[in-house]
Amino acid sequence: MGYVFVADDFTGASDTLATLARGGLRARLFRDMPSAEDLAGIDAWGVATHARSLGRDDMAALADRIGRGLAAFGPDFVHVKICSTFDSSAGIGNVALLAQGLAGALGIADIAVLAGQPSLGRYAVFGTLFARGPDGRVHRIDRHPVMAVHPVTPMHEADLARHLAALGLHGLHLVGRGQAGGAFPRLYDLLDQGDVASAGADLAATARPLVVMGASSVAEAWLATQPTRLQSPMPSPAITGPIFAFAGSRSSLTTAQVGAAEGLARLPISPGAMMEGGANRRAARDWALERLARGQDCLIYLTSDDQRAITPADLAQKTAAFVGGLYASASLGGLIVAGGDTSSAIVGVLAPAWLDYAGELCPGVPILQAQVQGAPLLMALKGGQMGGADFFPRAVAALRGA
Predict the structure, then answer these.
(1) What are phi and psi of 339, to 5 degrees?
(2) Per the confidence metrics, is the pTM higher than 0.85?
(3) Among candidates 168, 215, 169, which has minimal Cα distance to 196?
(4) Residue 93 domain-assigned?
(5) Which of 130, 235, 272, 387 is the most exposed place for a label (fewest CB within 10 A)?
(6) How far apart are CA 230 and CA 343, in angstroms?
(7) Is the sign of the CA dihedral 340, 81, 371, 230 positive or negative?
(8) Phi and psi (nearest 5°) for 187?
């Protein structure tokens, strides 16, 4: 069958969807397991989950359920899409547990890991992960100005074999640049696109079912082994209504992007106020509805000054309910969301049957087309570390087809 991927959040899933679509495949992204009828005419498809915010028990249950659903399709190559920065912890968003759970449910013995994504400024040499930062420099991931201080899953280990072993995936065999792999599980170094193609060819040569963990570099590696296909022309997005943006990410990069979001009315709200649902949250809702009613683009963002013990999953769900209520009460032309957990929860509440690729915004952030409550909606979903300083005004322009 065609290419299948399971993503730990919607922002990463949308990037892989875009990679496959740009490769000429008819690709589609689902919120849950599709039916055979949903896949008619589709070459590649994926399921986007909210795994990044899950604890161990919920992660194990999700992996088992999705894996058993996938087994009915008999895939022999399953991409476990994770963030290119590999940020994860043993207790929250455990990507090793996700990959191993899927492999177990599918009866697939062999797991491979593609480290990094050179096309996105993520590199791995000698099993050590590096990433380009918002300053334009490349940093070892445990010294990265954003990822080393991630508010939920900070990266304190750059050696990916050690990092993944701490999550439960032991015994990774390092495959150096351009080399052939031996025993499984494998960890492939990636420094440039030649390494990506080489890893794809080496995996294809195994001729056995595989679960492959990594960023959209996994899709790039697989595409490098396939015949070239012509990309179908994309229709230009065209919307007329106002655009609402929500920043759930509290990374330093997203904070800088919010500060540079000229042209959008902006309003902060604390995580505590979002959780409590009291007067401050109602005031934020009224503030947004008033501006959207007069056609003004606006942005609400979470502050980082509330130190109460709030789990990422709970905060994402409260945020999703807030945004879902706005959508039901206003005529939105487009939606922009910053934050992986936030994006996954919001898409879950809006509940489109599927999402299609509708164009490119910036590396790692495509434009998505969905049908929500019978009406078309264009969306841009970004992870906390994606995009440049001008992300929000650029996203507004892109959704309007500028």
Answers:
(1) 125, 125
(2) no
(3) 215
(4) yes
(5) 235
(6) 31
(7) positive
(8) -130, 115
